[in-house]
Design a protein that fits this description.
With 348 residues, the chain is an alpha+beta fold. It has two domains: 192 residues, Histidine kinase-like ATPase, C-terminal domain (Heat Shock Protein 90, 2-Layer Sandwich); 123 residues, Ribosomal Protein S5, domain 2 (2-Layer Sandwich). Helix content is 29%, strand content 24%. It is built from eleven helices and 17 strands. Strands 7-6-5-8-3-2-9-10 form an eight-stranded mixed sheet. It has a five-stranded mixed sheet with strand order 11-12-15-13-14, with helices on both faces. Helix 2 packs parallel to helix 7, helix 7 packs antiparallel against helix 8 and helix 10 runs parallel beside helix 11. The longest helix is centred in the middle third of the chain and has 18 residues. 39% of the residues are buried. The structure holds adenosine-5'-diphosphate (ADP) and magnesium ion. The site of adenosine-5'-diphosphate has 23 residues, from helix 2 and helix 5. One of its GO terms (biological process) is mismatch repair.
């Protein structure tokens, strides 16, 4: 299934480790989900299936059809600062993968019972490595990887106490997958909870351009109403390209809970972008209403630092003014041509 060229997993050199924004990544089940789905996407998966028990506290299993991990590297994958994604400081400065710190599996394994099952192309059988016991045994599996995380925070009851109800934790897990799904219409996602399918976002079967696939995915994830009540935006300014859709002013909400922003495919929360978007709506939004949008910013990787926060949800732009202007202009011009990019709604 995967076309991603796979490189061996190696320990990062110490100089590079010291350059990496380190820290805790495992806060709740959704943090685990985010990291495991990142890994599946980096492995070139086209279908990712998440299975949860008790909101993810009892089990989080993420199954993919990506490039897999050779038997000999399973143990390496669990080592802190071991990664197949970067080698040098130069790589770090132009990182194109979701991961690069080589810490997630190690961090998750330290607060759970983790098993890694994988089968790369050209290996006769899959192998399962139990992180706790170190036991390695052959298992049946098609090409790809499954990571099973059981009993999260079982050894740290203080952490476990901070978890909310299963329903709330499940909602956070679904939101974590939703963020990925909105960036990757070329990948199918399914989420099961307690044996029931709770969400499924299929690969859009559209003929033609990629924009069609993105619109289908946006409608699947955010609802048909979002597609009908938003305008398409495409904007280029300097070295920045923006695409996506901006909700019409009427669709603004009390909470800023439908503002999806991606920088080079990575979901981010960024004050500069949020402020720019807000100011683009300044004249058309009243009070504290929050606009709805899905914004995809493509920028030279050398002009954005993704290595500022351990969860990589924050980035730092080298020139935040140019980003602010581009975002503002992109949304303003989309809104100024009302409905121009909107998908025609059915006649009343
Ligand atoms: P990082 O993603 O920063 O490299 P991780 O701890 O998340 O660090 O993963 C360590 C390594 O294990 C990855 O670099 C990758 O080579 C391998 N790996 C993890 N998950 C998968 C997966 N689902 N498919 C293939 N390889 C994986
Ligand atoms: Mg990772």
């Amino acid at each position: 299934a995967s076309k991603a060229a796979r490189r061996p997993i190696c320990d990062l050199p110490d100089e590079l480790v010291s350059q990496i924004a380190a820290g805790e990544v495992v806060e709740r089940p959704a943090s685990v989900v985010r990291e495991l789905v990142d890994n599946a996407l980096d492995a070139g998966a086209t279908q990712i299936t998440l299975r949860l028990l008790a909101g993810g506290v009892r089990l989080i299993s993420v199954e993919d059809d990506g490039c897999g991990i050779p038997q000999a590297e399973l143990a390496v994958a669990l080592r802190r600062h071991a990664t197949s994604k970067i080698r040098t400081l130069d790589d770090l400065e132009s990182v194109a993968t979701m991961g690069f710190r080589g810490e997630a599996l190690a961090a998750i394994a330290s607060v759970s019972e983790l098993a890694l099952l994988s089968r790369p192309a050209g290996q006769d059988s899959a192998f399962l490595l139990d992180a706790r016991s170190g036991e390695l045994r052959p298992v049946a599996r098609a090409m790809g990887t499954t990571v099973e995380v059981k009993e999260l925070f079982f050894s740290t009851p203080a952490r476990r106490k901070f978890l909310k109800t299963d329903t709330t934790e499940l909602a956070h897990c679904v939101e974590a997958v939703r963020r990925h799904a909105l960036a990757r219409p070329d990948v199918g996602f399914a989420i099961w909870h307690e044996g029931k399918l709770v969400q499924q976002w299929r690969i859009a079967l559209t003929h033609g351009a990629g924009a069609g696939a993105l619109e289908r995915r946006l409608a699947d994830v955010l609802g048909e109403e979002f597609l009908e009540q938003s305008v398409a935006l495409t904007h280029q300014e300097g070295r920045i390209t923006l695409t996506g859709r901006a909700g019409l002013p009427d669709t603004a909400r009390a909470r800023a809970d439908q503002q999806y922003c991606y920088v080079n495919g990575r979901f981010v929360r960024d004050k500069v972008v949020a402020h720019a978007a807000r100011s683009a709506y300044e004249d058309v939004l009243h009070g504290q209403r929050q606009p709805v949008y899905a914004l995809y910013i493509d920028i030279d990787p050398a002009r954005v630092d993704v290595n500022v926060h351990p969860t990589k949800i924050e980035v730092r732009f080298r020139d935040s003014r140019e980003v602010h202007q581009a975002v503002r202009h992109a949304i303003e011009s989309a809104l100024a041509a009302p409905r121009a990019g909107a998908v025609a709604a059915a006649p009343p």
